[in-house]
Amino acid sequence: SLSSRLDVLWKQLPEFPDIDGYTLFKRGDFEIKIARVTKDSTKQKTNFEAARKYYKAARPWMKQSLDRLEAAFLELKDKKKSADAAKAPKTGVKKPVITVRRKPTDEETELAEAEGAWIEARMNFALADYYESLTYTDTAAKERKDLLNAAIKKFDDIYQGYRDGRAGIYAHMMHGKCLDDMGDIRGAIDLYDEVLSRASGAKTGESQLEGLFVQVEMYRLLLLRKQNKHKEFATDADAWLKQHAKMSKQEGYQGIALELTKYQIEQSKDLTAKAREDAFRKINKQLTDITKVR
After folding, report:
1. DSSP 3-state assignment of 100?
2. What is the 3-state secondary structure (H, E, C) of 223-281?
3. Which residues contact 168 (CB under 8 A, 6 or more apart)?
4. Which residues contact 65 (CB under 8 A, 6 or more apart)?
5. pTM over 0.90
6. How many angstroms separate the Cα of 210 from the Cα of each of 204, 218, 251?
7. b/e for 95-120, b at 16 or more Cβ within 10 A?
8. How many other CB atoms sit within 10 Å of the CB of residue 28?
9. What average pLDDT does the segment 76-103 reach?
10. How many Cβ atoms are within 10 Å of 52's Cβ, its own excluded?
11. What are the pLDDT digits (tens) for 171-226?
């Protein structure tokens, strides 16, 4: 199994110092997923502690990889800057500006790929902090707060450099999620709203952001539940699902539908027998639709 293979890698870690930090990072994710589905508190604690161990072990390797990718990107960036400067007209010589659509050169493609790899490494490095914070069930734990603050700084650094790109928007969402987890409801809502404001004005070609916008919408709706604004949550969720019915096969859409269904089940206990029967008929259909996708 994946778990047993990774256990072997962990035991061999001192013998293989070049082990991929990303493998350890994903093992941490695996342990968190196991912890979240178990009902045994003792086993859950064991899985969370194991996840913490893997994230801590992954971080030095991830940092080495990050530094290497940054150096490679900056070297290529400097080369392009020098090449562009060499091609620039001499001072005082003006040439007409002609815009020509062309395919990127090999050098430009190499630079873009190096930058993409560097950004991805930065994102994973920030996510390691965020995911490790999830291993602390005590929301007041200093370690948890420190990890969330560290993640916030990393996410914001990415956002400031790439505000209009997918990476920047995703980092801004995760910044909001960190504030959400820290209990800063107002701050989280502000960032969620900033991200969602991009959804209505998304440019052609940004369809790949659709899933991200759905995720942010679910975070926003769940915050209403945390604030005990249950009716507002139900109204907004129902309206959103109807407005975005064309996305009904997407997992994110079904996630929102599931949260609304949970709320409806909670409310059904206050209904009359006939109304409860009608409500559960509707709920059963919703759950059937959800399981078809999930």
Report:
1. coil
2. HHHHCCCHHHHHHHHHHHHHHCHHHCCCHHHHHHHHHHHHHHHHHHCCCCHHHHHHHHH
3. 158, 159, 160, 161, 162
4. 21, 22, 121
5. no
6. 12, 13, 11
7. eeeeeeeeeeeeeeeebeebbebbbe
8. 25
9. 75
10. 21
11. 999 999 999 999 999 999 999 999 998 876 554 445 567 888 889 999 999 999 99
pLDDT in tens, 121-164: 999 999 999 999 999 999 999 999 999 999 999 999 999 999 98
List b or e across 175-184, with b for residues whose CB sees 16 or more CB atoms inside 10 angstroms: bbbbbbbbee
Judge contact between 130 and 151, C-beta under 8 A: yes
Cα 16 to its chain centre, rounded Å, is: 31
> Under a CB-based contact definition with an 8 Å cutoff, are residues 30 and 2 in contact?
yes
Nearest CA-CA partner of 248 in 219, 286, 277 = 286
Whether the CB-CB separation of 80 and 35 falls below 8 Å is answered with no
Task: Name the region of 105 (left: φ>0; alpha: ψ -120 to 50; beta: rest).
Answer: beta
Q: Find the distance separating the first CA and the last CA of the chain, reported in whole Å.
A: 23
| Phi, psi at 263, each rounded to 5° | -65, -45
Q: 160: exposed, middle or buried (C-beta count within 10 Å: 0-12, 13-18, 19+)?
A: exposed
Q: pLDDT value at position 85?
A: 82
Amino acid 292 reads K
Dihedrals φ, ψ of 194, to 5°? -65, -40
Q: What value, to the nearest 5°, has the Cα angle with vertex 122 and ends 117 and 127?
A: 125
Q: Rounded distance, CA 211 to CA 169, Å?
A: 12
The answer to whether 262 and 225 have CB atoms below 8 angstroms apart is no
What stretch of H or E contains 127?
Answer: helix 106-133
CA distances from 220 to 141, 143, 146, 182 (A): 25, 26, 24, 15
